[in-house]
């Protein structure tokens, strides 16, 4: 296929996303004021709690089966690699540009967590629908592509709401603690005293050994271990793994791979097919809603300032130059060693993981903690403004090297 044909195929889904985002931008204008702060907040809650989990679950149930999930094992591995490389580059960028402490977690997260949700879901079906698509028949391409994208989207959601959530929280909390001059890890369940004060020192241990029984010493050790585990849990916040997107991903995968559950819920003759149809209907609202919110947030980022120009330029270089090149190297290596099969569409989805802009969920996380909201809006504006060009270029290049 000619390079200009590939360019047109790559341009269509990006243009579709930008057009919907422009509608969201228009609705956020003061003279229109439909997507104002309150409306955007409520729509964001609907997306987070209802639409996006429904989209994840419906796509996973429909496309992931016990027979194909084993062959897709490299998708979570590739997702993890993007986060590792992006985190290292983001940490280096934060140190080189001397980013303030409370924003370092935001910079690292923006470099590590890519938008593996709504963008690939729009891009892949649009590419498959093009008559000059290099990935073959439209229906087969869409079905296989959505299986790849759904699992990629689920893995991305799990990593964002476990890793990015906690790293933004950790840097922001540490900075606030340093400003106050004190840092308390946690409190006991009754809130009576800091956790650190309950740890015995060497003198206390020796005294216990001399005057107490061995049972008391053993009990003391177990108390210390228990308190340290509580401190670790408070810092990592494992409850975030129970957020709607991650729970929907887990439920969708389980129903897809467990044959009895799949038979009663999936298909025209399934007894509980009305559940699948209802979830699918709710999931259809996720993409336009998320893209409208994205457009409104981009205008907010355009109006505000406060982010360092060096951080913005460095982030753009990381996300749209270094990471895609690393992705080409990683996937080429996987191809040479037979780790990813022979389907070029599978390879394209894996490569796309490295070329997308930062995950929009990062903006939601900054709003939850009230850390770097203004700077996040600016980062998102410039990343998504450049993504229109960068994604078209990289999609064209990826299809060219795979065709």
From TrEMBL:
Keywords: Auxin signaling pathway, Endoplasmic reticulum, Membrane, Transmembrane, Transmembrane helix, Transport. Involved in cellular auxin homeostasis by regulating auxin metabolism. Regulates intracellular auxin accumulation at the endoplasmic reticulum and thus auxin availability for nuclear auxin signaling. It is found in: Endoplasmic reticulum membrane. It comes from Lithospermum erythrorhizon (Purple gromwell). This is Auxin efflux carrier family protein. It comes from the Eukaryota. One of its GO terms (cellular component) is endoplasmic reticulum membrane. It holds the Pfam family Mem_trans. Its main location: endoplasmic reticulum. The chain crosses the membrane at residues 6-29, 41-61, 73-94, 106-127, 147-168, 240-259, 279-299, 311-333, 345-369, 381-402. Belongs to the auxin efflux carrier (TC 2.A.69.2) family. It is a multi-pass membrane protein. GO terms for biological process: auxin-activated signaling pathway; endoplasmic reticulum to cytosol auxin transport.
């Amino acid at each position: 296929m000619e390079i200009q044909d590939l360019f047109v195929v790559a341009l269509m889904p990006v243009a579709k996303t930008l057009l919907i985002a422009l509608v969201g931008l228009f609705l956020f204008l003061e003279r229109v004021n439909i997507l104002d702060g309150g409306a955007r907040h409520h729509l964001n809650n609907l997306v987070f709690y209802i639409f996006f989990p429904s989209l994840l679950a419906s796509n996973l149930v429909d496309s992931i089966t016990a027979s194909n999930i084993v062959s897709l094992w490299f998708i979570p591995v590739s997702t993890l690699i993007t986060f590792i490389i992006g985190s290292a580059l983001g940490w280096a960028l934060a140190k080189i540009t001397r980013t303030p402490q409370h924003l370092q977690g935001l910079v690292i997260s923006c470099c590590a967590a890519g938008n593996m949700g709504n963008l690939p879901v729009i891009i892949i079906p649009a590419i498959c629908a093009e008559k000059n698509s290099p990935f073959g028949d439209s229906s087969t391409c869409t079905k296989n592509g959505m299986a790849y994208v759904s699992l990629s989207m689920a893995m991305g959601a799990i990593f964002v709401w476990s890793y990015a959530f906690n790293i933004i929280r950790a840097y922001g909390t540490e900075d606030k603690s340093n400003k106050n001059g004190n840092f308390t890890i946690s409190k006991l369940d009754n809130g009576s005293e800091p956790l650190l004060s309950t740890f015995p020192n060497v003198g206390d241990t020796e005294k216990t050994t001399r005057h107490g029984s061995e049972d008391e010493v053993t009990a003391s050790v177990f108390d210390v271990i228990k308190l340290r585990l509580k401190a670790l849990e408070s810092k990592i916040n494992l409850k975030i793994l129970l957020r709607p997107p991650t729970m929907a991903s887990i439920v969708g995968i389980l129903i897809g791979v467990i044959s009895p559950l799949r038979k009663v819920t999936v298909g025209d003759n399934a007894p509980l097919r009305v559940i699948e149809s209802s979830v699918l209907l709710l999931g259809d609202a996720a993409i336009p809603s998320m893209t409208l919110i994205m457009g409104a947030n981009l205008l907010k980022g355009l109006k505000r300032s406060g982010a360092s120009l060096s951080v913005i330029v460095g982030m753009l270089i990381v996300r749209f130059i270094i990471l895609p090149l690393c992705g080409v190297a990683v996937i080429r290596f996987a191809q040479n060693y037979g780790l990813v099969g022979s389907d070029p569409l599978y390879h394209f989805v894996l490569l796309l993981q490295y070329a997308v802009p930062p995950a929009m969920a990062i903006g939601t996380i900054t709003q939850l903690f009230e850390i770097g909201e203004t700077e996040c809006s600016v980062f998102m504006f410039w990343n998504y403004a450049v993504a229109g060009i960068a994604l078209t270029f990289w999609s064209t290049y990826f299809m060219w090297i795979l065709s």
